[in-house]
Amino acid sequence: MSEFVERLQELMDEQGLNRKMLAKKVGINATCISHYLLEKRIPTVESIVKIADYFQRSTDFLLGREEENTKLTFKPCPSFSERLAYIKEQAGGSAQQFYGDLGISKTCYYAWLRGDRKPTLDNVIQIANKLDRRVDYILGRES
Q: How far apart are CA 15 and CA 64, in angstroms?
């Protein structure tokens, strides 16, 4: 997560923002921003999307998964359960094969599909890596 911290700090510095100012602008608690900057906590999926949207950057850029630092506009994220169903449909095959290939437990897969639980950022990155896709694609921010 050190790449995320570096990039977040750089973007904050470019706009002259401190953690409290950023927190207010993106709707995240200032303590959470502090924990992210000190690498005490990994952002939630919702938090990284809010930060990416505010700075008009991809989540993949913020996470250090790509180098391009261009400003982009993304679609609002659908619910993760909708997106997971879409990705599974595109993959084809059985649900068991799908979650097995992704290294996800059956319990997690179906809880996410029902919307009972939300994945962690690490889960989303794992899915992106396994499918060789961008995090923004997994989240539905891009087509």
A: 20
